[in-house]
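Hi everyone,

Forwarding the result from last night's run.
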Amino acid sequence: MVAFFNFRDKVRKSLILFERRSYVKEELPESNLIDCSLGQNPFGFPKELLKEIDLGAIGIGGYPDPYHLRLRKALVERWGGLFKEDDVFIGAGSMGCLEKINKALMREGVTVLGYLPQFTEYISEVEALGGVYDSIMLDESDGFRFNSEKLLSKLSKEHILVYIDNPNNPTGQVIPIDEIRLIVERAMRLDVVVIVDEAYGDFMDDENSALTLNYPNLIVIRSFSKGFGLAGLRVGYAVIKGEEVKEFYRKVNLPFEVSSISEEIAIKALKYKSFVEESRVLIRKIKEEMIASLQRKGFCLSYTHLDVPIFLLWQKGINLYDYFRERGILCVKGCDFLGLNSSFVRVRVPPQIESFLERVGFGF
């Protein structure tokens, strides 16, 4: 006889009704597909750094440095002292840092302001904690170009956080730093914290990073997963210059966030900035040709930056994910992004364009 077990009454009410939205699926793609889905660097990672790794010297039998002092110091040096070591928090990828922010600052019923379309996983995390995701919808007829005036008109003291991904996922557009500054300044006057998620930030110029700004209500998130192509390491970092926000983040921060191996590779990867710059040149060339070819074929494309390896594509009246899948190309479903539907897909630039264009060259 099985005893009756009812745990639901003890679980957070918001979690009972919550259904996670995610574009990361459990299914493994067939080997013959051209993978234009997940947003890592299409050219992988700098292979030369593997020659520098001595596993025997890393000491994997013991715990890593609890708060990753060497990596934090290396990041301060890489950014020319724009922030202090005490401002840096290492996390399990950029998503690990975002989870900590939500854990520190959110409670059930609070409201986070964002815009659509936007990074799906963060929206899901807000809703899983019982938060309300308030958003503006960007204009499809304008290619979903970011509209700071529209966001500012929505921003109020009722919001606890503003979430901005720059470059944006899924459009691949870069939001100018002057627009970010305006939002942070307005939010500061309303006692609202702004998160600028720069997971794809290595694909834009350093001068456009929110790390160049100094505001007590600003949190900037970065990752080694995209530009450096090291998604398997799960290394990200948050930079917080405001003492009050930093205090709350420390209270939920955990030691040993990443392994000794991951930390060592990340430190060495910072010396390979030229790899990221070379990748941007190649991405720009391929993406430009992809966009021209797809537009000639009648597809609609988002406003996007040529150096960022993702963009949004759509064609009304078609399940575009199935259309590309039938032609041997794996993309991300548009319906996995709040505000979009099955006529959209997010495309990541492939390392070679010839096979992509050959497969997509058939008529509807």
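The chain has a mean pLDDT of 91.

Cheers,
N.
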